[in-house]
């Protein structure tokens, strides 16, 4: 049996998954309770428990462990038992844990936090004769739903600093209908780690695994995130209904998807609950046909939808950047109705083995988000703000960056720009990785006449476009297209106010 000593404990807790830092996952600066135990050689190879009471209304229990004598090879094992029974055992490889209904540190089980008598389980695999070890456990009780929502999976920052971060926002695993080949070549439910492994190999900064109507995959992600410490695993799921599919990002809590029931009478009732969970919603593959081959895949709401409750639209699903199944036309229609919705893309991968550019291959397309850092809150804020472009072929280096200026005011894509007195609009553009392609300027869904400045010569190009003043346009945006007219990069609008 392997033993893990302090240096490794530090590594485990450093990502917030062995034990969240103070202020994360509901832990407070001051513990609600401190459990203490003096360990001597007479306890060697013994198991014991320390009882404590959990007050009613608690939604999360978090603990931090510490003990003396580790420099003399003292080793202690920890676990926990609730009123209904065993809730986990981490041995000596963690310096703490957190438990709630929705999530738990790997080695522990999520579930209801029942009030009453709990027991901290303690084992002593090693202590030398004559050594005395003082053990303490700081216990934190969180009593609000807001604290329960502060899952460690939502708090991790993989990388600091602002920049363009590239990710895939639509993927499936064995937790729903993802399948891949086994070692013997049979198609089997595809383990989640295969998806994460492939995303990491393709250089993605973040992914959202969006299995259908379930939260069961989040514990796998909590287990994998400390190892895959260059890829942010954003909580996601595909809310799959008979009236359409939508991805939910940024919460691990349950969202009732049963539209048409007493609990969820219509689509708007479900959407209103999303904001209370701190998440965002994106309409998936809105132009897909619905039928026996894909039930509810198209966007077919049976009642009027309040689109102010939706933040994004998946305009590219897999390889559908152009043609009848592209979501661009659907999205632009909503923009022309006055809605501010961010265009994103997702592979809709169901098999981690599919190689680029195969249909549904991971990272094809890629959603590229300008965010303050690489964390779930920052990526969500970037999507909400519309600071996003879609790389339809999932390259690692293509860039479409632009801002519009009028009357001394400047706005990047996703932002609003006030245009007074028919002032002309100056657009500054930066494009990478698209030599030989061309820019397309779209205003209110209509492509504007091409100019020589729209042809891209070189792989790192800065250029500028000027748009004559008009009080008619509600929004403008740019795309990059190849010589056949296919979309390579899809930019989000600058919204115009007059």
Automatic annotation (TrEMBL):
InterPro entries: PHP_domain, Pol/histidinol_Pase-like. One of its GO terms (molecular function) is 5'-3' DNA exonuclease activity. Residues 1-21 form the signal peptide. Keywords: Signal. Gene3D superfamilies: Metal-dependent hydrolases (3.20.20.140). SUPFAM superfamilies: PHP domain-like. It comes from the Bacteria. PANTHER family: EXONUCLEASE (PTHR42924), POLYMERASE_HISTIDINOL PHOSPHATASE N-TERMINAL DOMAIN-CONTAINING PROTEIN (PTHR42924:SF3). This is PHP domain-containing protein. It comes from Paracidobacterium acidisoli.
């Amino acid at each position: 049996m392997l033993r893990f000593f302090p240096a490794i404990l530090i590594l485990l807790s450093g990502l917030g998954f062995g034990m969240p830092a103070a202020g994360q996952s509901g832990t407070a600066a001051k513990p609600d309770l401190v459990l203490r135990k003096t360990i001597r050689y007479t306890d060697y190879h013994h198991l014991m428990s320390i009882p404590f009471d959990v007050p009613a209304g608690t939604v999360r229990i978090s603990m931090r462990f510490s003990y003396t004598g580790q420099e003399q090879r003292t080793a202690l094992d920890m676990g926990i038992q609730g009123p209904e029974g065993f809730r986990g055992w981490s041995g000596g490889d963690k310096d703490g844990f957190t438990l709630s209904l929705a999530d738990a540190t790997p080695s522990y089980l999520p579930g209801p936090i029942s009030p009453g008598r709990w027991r901290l389980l303690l084992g002593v695999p090693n202590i030398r004769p004559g050594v005395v070890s003082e053990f303490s456990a700081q216990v934190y009780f969180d009593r609000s739903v807001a604290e329960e929502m502060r899952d460690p999976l939502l708090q991790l920052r993989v990388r600091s600093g602002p920049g363009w971060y590239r990710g895939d926002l639509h993927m499936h695993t064995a937790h729903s209908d993802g399948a891949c080949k086994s070692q013997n070549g049979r198609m089997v439910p595809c383990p989640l780690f295969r998806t994460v492994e492939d995303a990491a190999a393709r250089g993605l900064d973040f992914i959202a695994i969006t299995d259908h109507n379930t939260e069961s995959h989040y514990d796998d992600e909590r287990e994998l995130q400390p190892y895959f410490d260059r890829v942010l695993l954003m909580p996601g799921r595909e809310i799959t209904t008979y009236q359409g599919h939508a991805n939910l990002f940024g919460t691990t809590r349950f969202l009732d998807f049963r539209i048409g029931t007493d609990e969820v009478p219509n689509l708007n009732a479900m959407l209103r609950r999303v904001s209370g969970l701190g998440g965002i919603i994106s309409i998936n593959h809105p132009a897909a046909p619905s039928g026996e081959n894909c039930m509810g895949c198209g966007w077919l709401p049976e009642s009027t939808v309040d689109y102010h409750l939706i933040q994004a639209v998946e305009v590219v699903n897999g390889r559908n950047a152009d043609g009848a199944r592209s979501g661009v036309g659907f999205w632009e229609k909503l923009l022309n109705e006055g809605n501010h919705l961010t265009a994103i893309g997702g592979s809709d991968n169901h098999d981690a083995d599919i190689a680029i550019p195969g249909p549904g291959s991971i990272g094809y397309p890629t959603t590229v988000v300008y965010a303050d850092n690489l964390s779930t809150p920052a990526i969500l804020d970037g999507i909400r703000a519309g600071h996003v472009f879609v790389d339809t072929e999932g390259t690692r280096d293509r860039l479409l960056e632009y801002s519009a200026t009028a009357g001394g005011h400047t706005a990047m894509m996703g932002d609003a720009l006030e245009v007074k007195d028919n002032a002309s609009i100056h657009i500054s553009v930066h494009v990478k990785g698209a030599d030989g392609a061309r820019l397309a300027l779209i205003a209110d869904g209509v492509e504007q006449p091409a100019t020589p400045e729209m042809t891209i010569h070189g792989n790192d190009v800065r250029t500028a476009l000027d748009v004559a003043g008009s009080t008619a346009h509600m929004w403008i945006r740019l795309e990059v297209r190849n010589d056949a007219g296919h979309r390579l990069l899809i930019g989000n609008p600058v919204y115009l106010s007059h």
